[in-house]
Amino acid sequence: xxxxxxxxxxxxxxxxxxxxxxRPASVVKELIENSIDAGANSIKIFIKxxxxxxxxxxxxxxxxxxxxxxxxxQRHATSKIQKQEDLLNIKTLGFRGEALxxxxxxxxxxxxxxxxxxxxxxxxxxxxxxxxxxxxxITLGTTVEVRDLFFNxxxxxxxxxxxxxxxSHIIETVQxxxxxxxxxxxxxxxxxxxxxxxxPSSSIQERICQLYGIxxxxxxxxxxxxxxxxxxxxxxxxxxxxxxxxxKQLIFINQRPVREPLLLSFLYQAFQVxxxxxxxxxxxxxxxxxxxxxxxxxxxxxxxxxxQRIRQLIxxxxxxxxxxKVEESPVVWKExxxxxxSFTQKSFFDSQNExxxxxxxxxxxxxxxxxxxxxxxGILFIDYHAGHERVIFEKILNxxxxxxxxxxxxxxxxxxxxxxxLIKENLSLLHNLQIEAEDFGKNSIIIRNIPQILKDxxxxxxxxxxxxxxxxxxxxxxxxxxxxxxxxxxxxxxxLRANNKITLNEINTLLRELEKTSDPDHCPHGRPxxxxxxxxxxxxxxxx
Length: 544
Description:
The structure is a single chain. The chain is α+β, with helices and mostly antiparallel strands. The protein has 16 helices and 25 strands. An 8-stranded mixed beta sheet has the order 7-6-5-8-3-2-9-10, covered by helices on one side. Strands 11-12-15-13-14 form a 5-stranded mixed beta sheet. Strands 18-19-20-21-25 form a 5-stranded antiparallel beta sheet. Strand 11 (220-227) and strand 12 (230-237) form a beta hairpin. The N and C termini lie far apart (91 Å).
């Protein structure tokens, strides 16, 4: 007797409506989850044309009973839950019975499966959800082939992002499940090229090394804490892994990858995260009845019965680790005398742009990269990070080939598989920005030439940030738009920070260079760079 059953209407009404298949990675996710729930020890994924031509998933799991294969195509048909109480004790990745139903409706689908207890398997073929053929077959486990995805919904296909971005999402999906299921072997092939070939590992630590490399793993600090049936394991990146954009911030709850803003906020509070974003991998295992995955259509978020208990776990974990804190300088008025461009420290600006002559100023350092300049007619507030960002942004955007520099020792940058494919397919963008980079194989690129302005920059951080931009923000490639976004990333990395000491000479130089830009009042992201309050307005506050 088969195990798959159609859920009752009363139970269906308690289930959050499943979302439609939005992209190829959604299909890959659902099929991988089915394979894991079937007890697979090996999962192989084959992709053609970023998943629109073919998504093929092969596993060695227990297979599907012959009597259940046709049922599996129906909505809310599942073996994972049978009654309402099961929704409060979910221990499988899938439970709604909607995956194959939703996928079959937008593609040409073939399933080849044989349950381990049966001598004969089944092959089924459908088009747009309509059964076309069913015949006996012999196989091991289950193979699902999805062809011509969105062939009958061209509007949905139109809204897919660029091929490189869609491939990146597929790679990210496979990596996430490989990370939280280290005992399963994962293989990913895209357009006849092996992308991932991960053998079973004995621990999470070993799997992190397999996916991200030993160099990355050695920069992680591991902490764990257990409270009864609640266990938290955290791999927290050192300061050298901090990034200007969120990258490699992975949260897994009961071996399920989720995007959980509540837990992220707890981590940021506990570790007192500043303007740089840490990289971390967090595994939270709690009783099934303590978490509800039935609150989000694609099960990407969760609701906790006792969120404060998780917060307490995180803060207790933090107490096990001492962090170096940077104390801000006290807010004091400073009086400087600048004479003929002489400096007592290294300047962030070129000497030919220095203020000439003698000027007396007083300025107040308000912290967080904001200073107040005293003038005869009022006070000028400057965000020197935003202002410097605008100056660098336009220098990069306008191109400075005469100021490029060849690296004496070319730098090899190792990337994750998803970032590697994005960068590899967009090397021409880097070249246009005077970053001479080449494919170096094995998820790495080599950089031989950079703009002079990037001489002391963290190139790894810049390349990773560019990959994030390409993955998340680009729908249809537009060269000018991409170039501007990448230039703003580089400018943000190279601009003055709140912890950079700045002199009056440099402030005046910044103001002069800022006035030469196309928009001196705003940084590339649209934030204001300065604000002037006149003495007349200040006096009006006091009815003068």
